[in-house]
Design a protein that fits this description.
mainly beta, 6-stranded antiparallel β-sheet, globular
Length: 207
């Protein structure tokens, strides 16, 4: 789990094509882009093509906001900073960068009902915002043996865990779930079992 202060850290949606790659690990994304951290992003098909809405700073890759029952949330960047919101409240024109994923687990400090049949245990990756407007990113390691969406909701919203999340979006989990961080001499790498076409990178504003 990382908690990142958006006063000092700025996220970016990274597409492997920017680096002349079809897919890459979170570590490779971070190294190629010069990010201090990176996490895998949205879902993709068997050919490695990203699914649902996707827009990087360079171009709008997928223009349609999917109405599929899984893709209920959007992570993006606007002039006022990063945000996580419900797809029905998302306006592509207001975002400089954005990606659609799901399900949306928390919205406005309340749990969102998850589509029946999606509650199985699996390795998870998430991105969210806390009450102070800080970014939260996390990956459940294989040692845990997987988490359900209900467990994620409770972990991030219940006061006893002190996450203080108000928004939480599930990213592509399973073998895709991966997180890399390198800041100074500290380095942490939770690899996945597959490379991904899209990642979210986190950059120091000082750079």
């Amino acid at each position: 789990l990382l908690r990142l202060d958006s006063r000092f850290i700025v996220p970016r949606v990274l597409h492997a094509e920017q680096f002349q790659l079809k897919s890459a690990s979170a570590k490779t994304f971070a190294e190629k882009a010069g990010a201090i951290a990176a996490i895998n992003a949205n879902y993709f098909d068997e050919k490695g093509r990203p699914l649902a809405y996707l827009k990087t700073a360079e171009k709008e890759i997928n223009r349609s906001v999917s109405k599929h029952g899984l893709y209920t949330g959007v992570f993006g960047l606007s002039e006022s900073g990063p945000f996580v919101t419900h797809r029905d409240e998302f306006q592509p024109a207001q975002a400089g960068e954005a990606l659609q994923s799901g399900p949306l687990l928390l919205h406005r400090n309340a749990s969102v009902e998850v589509l029946t049949g999606l509650g199985r245990y699996a390795r998870r990756s998430v991105i969210g915002m806390d009450k102070e407007g800080r970014l939260l990113i996390a990956v459940s390691d294989t040692v845990i043996g997987g988490m359900s969406f209900v467990e994620l909701q409770e972990l991030f919203i219940q006061p006893k865990w002190q996450m203080n999340a108000v928004e939480l979006l599930n990213l592509d989990g399973g073998g895709s779930a991966q997180l890399y961080l390198k800041s100074g001499k500290f380095e942490e790498w939770l690899p996945g079992t597959s490379e991904v076409p899209v990642a979210i990178g986190f950059f120091s504003k000082a750079n």
